[in-house]
Amino acid sequence: KMKISGYAQMRYNDLYKTNPDMECEQCDGTYGGNDGMSFRRIRIKFSGYLHERVYFYIQPDFAGGNSNNVSLKDAYFDLMFTSDRRWRLRLGQSKVPFGFENMQSSQNRLSLDRNDAINSALKNERDMMAVVYYTPTIVQERFKKLQNQQLKGSGNYGMFALGAFNGQTANNADENLNKHIVTRLTYPFELANGQIFEAGIQAYAGQYVTTKVSEGVMAEVTGENGQKEMVSAEGMEWDDARLGASFIWYAMPFGFQTEYNVGVGPEYDPATNTIQRKPLKGGYAQMSYRLELGQHFLLPFWRYTNYEGGKKFETDARSYDMQEIEVGFEWQPNQAFELVALYAYADRTYNDSLNPDNRQTGSLIRLQAQINF
Amino acid sequence: KMKISGYAQMRYNDLYKTNPDMECEQCDGTYGGNDGMSFRRIRIKFSGYLHERVYFYIQPDFAGGNSNNVSLKDAYFDLMFTSDRRWRLRLGQSKVPFGFENMQSSQNRLSLDRNDAINSALKNERDMMAVVYYTPTIVQERFKKLQNQQLKGSGNYGMFALGAFNGQTANNADENLNKHIVTRLTYPFELANGQIFEAGIQAYAGQYVTTKVSEGVMAEVTGENGQKEMVSAEGMEWDDARLGASFIWYAMPFGFQTEYNVGVGPEYDPATNTIQRKPLKGGYAQMSYRLELGQHFLLPFWRYTNYEGGKKFETDARSYDMQEIEVGFEWQPNQAFELVALYAYADRTYNDSLNPDNRQTGSLIRLQAQINF
Amino acid sequence: KMKISGYAQMRYNDLYKTNPDMECEQCDGTYGGNDGMSFRRIRIKFSGYLHERVYFYIQPDFAGGNSNNVSLKDAYFDLMFTSDRRWRLRLGQSKVPFGFENMQSSQNRLSLDRNDAINSALKNERDMMAVVYYTPTIVQERFKKLQNQQLKGSGNYGMFALGAFNGQTANNADENLNKHIVTRLTYPFELANGQIFEAGIQAYAGQYVTTKVSEGVMAEVTGENGQKEMVSAEGMEWDDARLGASFIWYAMPFGFQTEYNVGVGPEYDPATNTIQRKPLKGGYAQMSYRLELGQHFLLPFWRYTNYEGGKKFETDARSYDMQEIEVGFEWQPNQAFELVALYAYADRTYNDSLNPDNRQTGSLIRLQAQINF
User: Fold this and answer.
1) What's A324's domain CATH number?
2) A13, A291, B172, B275: which has the fewest C-beta neighbours closer than 10 Å?
3) Dist CA B275 CA B277 (whole Å)
4) How many CB contacts within 8 angstroms connect chain B with chain C?
């Protein structure tokens, strides 16, 4: 009844690293620095059907931070309205249905980290939520097929989703009564020749409260008498909304994938040392190829990412203007083991109160050994 | 040989909450505030018989604090003196046998949190201990029957118990050589018509050391020359003793349950900003009904709680004078899923050095979704 | 495919403790003080072959610190070059192959803690690493035999090992690009009468960075112009190298075991309040006897340990000059449960910036109850 499975990812990011000062907090704690060999993820999943209409999934991670702390990733349960599982109510901490790459498991993703552009919407992709998923039977089957044939699908996060979530990202209590609302529509089309492609749109909106703010960082508010005044930006509420589109041509054998999103949110302003409500935009494009070499698989890939905007959950809603190009490959000698090697070149400007003028460029080679158990 | 099971409780406590400043630290971190959806418990149990006479039970929780930290709940092993399991020595971290509701699993309890009156004896109900349990075969069978028929029994914590525990509550090292001593006697009577009721008494005594004390909070001691002097209350030893009685008329289908305890312990005194040795008292009464609706069960309940005394393990041995009325129901559509909704009205005065005059009253609706796996 | 197993150790170290100020940070948090009953280890292991040539092993511990925190012990995977498993590449966090007692599981060790002399090389014995192990088939079989017959072997960490590891000990990021290199050669000989004995040598070398340094503790460096100057010792790099020899005459029924190592590393100097590069040396000798009493086993043992040198991973690379004698026994009434009782007398001088003149002597009786699941 209960299934225990998981995966682990060990990395070495220090090879030919030209600039250890170029970091990416959201991507990987060892993207910058010279931190040696490290684990990015050690996930153990407990899951199963407890009843014809009740499913649960609990997944802690044992590789948190740079010191292998334990943190909770998923803990949710699905209540099926009908026995054909078309309608589900999901309660708990789970991925917020915004973006394809966000839904796709890191166990399957080609590149080592999720792209900054979409992933900056939701740290760790997750939040506490109540969401309704609708997935017609034929779409359930296609999602399953994409997983069974190891085509790196997202799994079933609904053809249609509508939900409410706390809004302060996973493992954080809410800070206001406002709940974020999210909706998503995605459809996996199958052509006559068997090729599958997926197209989706998604949006969310809510009020985010900035909690990690350096001393002296202010925000402008309108006082009771209509006058503008400056107050500490800590605990301030901000519009937080995004709209995104996704397109995935699954690698059979040639793959192409792109996502883009625009929105608004809090962002640090270096000129005034304030946090302001600012627009944001960004996306990525990725090409890949699935080579079958006897029992081995080799998947070369290329990805370009661009993001301009704040990262609301980082210190001072850190301001970003970044581009990154990655080229690499994934090698699967068997289903239990995978090796990824990639070369990344990035131009990352990220400013906060401590480092208000911080542009870093550089390149590095990244290695990852993964086991699936 | 090894069994893996567990349960998880997701809550929403913000509905019609009239006073977010009314908190209950011991009950639930999201009882006050506007913290949104949250997990109260995510428990995974590893247990089993390793040998005819050796049993083990390890239970971590993945929903600690408001950020889903991991903490150890149980980790104990039972050594049976005889193969009929009448006599057992339990070693490890486990529930201290004081009170019926404390012994009853949160998986089974009707109300969302344990009552303040008895539970204030032992944060998280547990401690490191060595305890001997004696349970005659007929009592073992009745305890089992109460669980198998889902009558919300406590499980087998002995008909008679005698043990020693560190005394600083679970996951804290002891602070003195003194060990707390606990004893308990409980008996489940079965009437001719099958109705079961249980009556118990229990007591513990020891020396507790206050470790969470604000700066400036003092305590009176008698110096070497017999003179009274004031010293910091941090690290002070206090008498810590309670005596309690329990009565449970199991819901077949009407249920009634009450417990009361009196004792002595450290308690903050707002007038003098000191911690003092003070008496404490309190209890609760609960009524419930077990409705069978086809395959569903619906259990309406009502509970009244009152407590006057200190909570030794909270900051400054915080002083309490509280009353709470709860009315709600538990709905079990199947054995895997439960929903609890309740309305609570409380009048809570709780004083410490930071808030020496702190009376909060208010009401809230509380929701809990639980899965059992 | 996946196996879940583990063990737990509960201790009481306060019996007839003559000097609670005598501590051993590396051994056991409750070696000193009066901390009452405590858990030293609660280990749950997830392991198994995922493929003919892929093995994994993940082991968290639920008894970290004095408050039962969770920490990651092992997380590694073995990639076999050949299907006879003679050559393996191990990636991940695992024991660094230095010393026999370090490799031997705490589940099997007679004495409660590892000896200071060898274990001071590597806190928690582990690090992130890539290591190649070579074990001929006959040696594989002997290692297996030592485990199956419960002769307290080390398991298979290779007849020959060569690897690279971060060097800052487990659950810490590396602090420099330098990797430590380790190599080990061990061989279990079997005599005509069936007696097995093992002899091994091992060495490692690298650059260690001191990160836990009190304010004001300095180190001497040579400036650009060749002049000596004093700078803070925090973040300084130090030579860190050891060479060790091991000999184990397995208890069939009489056992004898000894290890010794010499080396160099950072060490606190009380006279100058600096950290300096200093030599280190130390070892232990142990005798034991394996008594079969019906289905019970009783193993009396005696151990003497001596260590002079720094412990690089402790505050200020704390300076040690210690001796300890232990005499005790392990009793195994069945395979699920073990009890160890020992008397320890120690003379421990350990100096750091806060306690620069700190010699502690004393004795204590130590009890441990262990279950194996």
Assistant:
1) 2.40.160.10
2) A291
3) 7
4) 94
